[in-house]
Amino acid sequence: MTAARAKLTRCNGFYCFLLLTLFTLLPHCVMAADQSNELGLLQVYVRDGCPHCAEAKQYLPKITAQRPSLKIVFRSLDQEPDARTELITLSQQAGVWPPGVPAFVMHGKVLVGFNDAETSGPRLLAFIDDAVTANQQVDGGWLGNISVDRLGLPLFTLALGLLDGFNPCAMWVLLFLLSFLVRLQNRRRMALVAGMFVFISGAVYYAFMAAWLNVFLLMGMSDAVRLSLVALGLFIGAVNVKDFFAFKQGFSLSIPDAAKPGLYARMRQLLQTDALAASLLSVAALAVLVNFIELLCTAGLPAIYTAVLSQQGLSMAQYYGYLALYILAYMADDSLMVGVAVITLGNHKLTEQSGRLLKLISGCVMLILALTMLFKPEWVMS
Q1: Which residues pair with 42 in a beta bridge?
Q2: What is the spatial distance between Cα 191 and Cα 228, in angstroms, rounded to a whole number?
Q3: Cα-trace Rg, the chain
Q4: How far is it, in rounded angstroms, from Cα 373 to Cα 223?
Q5: Which of 260, 272, 302, 332 is most buried, by the most CB atoms less than 10 A from its CB?
Q6: CB burial class (10 A; 0-12, 13-18, 19+) of residue 197?
Q7: Residues 6+ apart with CB under 8 A from 166
Q8: Is the pLDDT of residue 381 over 80?
Q9: What is the pLDDT of residues 282-299, one digit of tens each?
Q10: Residues 152 and 33: beta-carbon distance below 8 Å
Q11: Residue 249: is its pLDDT beyond 50?
């Protein structure tokens, strides 16, 4: 029993470490995204006596003034024997034929021609921006194309999803359910019943977050909506931090004591039901009920996350894809606890000390997000 408890503690410690690491790395990812748009090498192929090349040379210093980290290299077809061969090869690869001068090459893309600053200048700037953006993108499947400047969104999603999964309200119910199921000493039945609870909880939570998302997509992010979110985040964060220092003293965002006897009774019924199908239906109903009971306890992070997500300008499929990623992270710690309990057949409960610590971490993050939305909304909304 001691070894099983130690194993569970180590696993939970690993997830806490992973969660804190994600929050530590997130600001660095945002900084890297801000810097990534300035990086790149622009090669300009020119020829002596070309008037359009001369026009381009006069205009390019304006670009370097706007983008100081953009490196520009001139390649002379007259003075460099390899320059002509390279330009022909690059033009063929890019599908730009026939080659000509001046030719601008960046990240495998080719643009030919330059008339004057007024007409060709904006075209060249757009070419540079498109080349940099295309070079930074990877195919993220149902998340769409993910570029360096959007790398923070998946990490933000995973971090908040993991943190939300450590909500003491949800963890208390799951651990208490496992403590009942372990009496069966039947790993298969325990895995199916507890797995159904985690799955249905995730599905209900997904629907709950989808509703939040559609509200924000419909209403938009006005100052009134943003300030309402700030107030909600500050309130929930302050209550959770208070619970660390004064647990259950005054108002608390926890499962009410009045609701616990009913939950206990439903869990005991699971032990008395021999039919597996009936047990699965009962635990599914229990999962739905628990999600409604703990609604206020878990409302803060989903509200803030979906508000941020609604401002990203994604397609509906991508919006729901990110919600699915959030839910996968949300379910990760629950799945871990079920796996450990099934393997060890150990009996574990959420201690008051652990619950208070989880509330402190959750409350601090809520306060940070709320204050960021108040004073620096562009940090999380862009």
Answers
A1: 72
A2: 41
A3: 28
A4: 10
A5: 302
A6: buried
A7: 15, 16, 19, 333, 358, 361, 362
A8: no
A9: 778 877 877 777 666 666
A10: yes
A11: yes
User: To 5 degrees, how large is the angle CA 349–CA 350–CA 352?
Assistant: 130
Cβ–Cβ under 8 Å, residues 40 and 70: yes
CB 364 within 8 A of CB 237: yes
**Which residue in 334, 329, 335, 20 sits closest to 161, CA to CA?**
329
pLDDT classification of 47: cutoffs 50, 70, 90 = confident
Q: Looking at the DSSP assignment, which residues form a beta bridge with residue 147?
A: 137
> Does 20 have pLDDT greater than 90?
no
Q: Which tens digit of pLDDT belongs to each residue from 344-361?
A: 766 565 556 666 676 677
Phi, psi of 207 (to 5 degrees): -65, -40
Which residues are within 8 A (CB) of 246 and not within 5 positions of it... i.e. 6 or more apart?
none
Question: pTM here?
Answer: 0.58
Long-range contacts of 191-195 (CB under 8 A, 24+ apart): 191/338, 191/342, 192/276, 192/280, 193/270, 193/279, 193/280, 193/283, 194/283, 194/338, 194/341, 194/342, 195/338
Q: Which of 177, 164, 195 is nearest to 350 (CA)?
A: 177
Domains with residue ranges and CATH for the chain: 2-36+143-381 (no CATH), 41-135 (3.40.30.10)
Residue 107: what residue type?
H
Q: Which residues contact 254 (CB under 8 A, 6 or more apart)?
A: 168, 169, 243, 248, 297
Tokens representing 167 are 């909500």
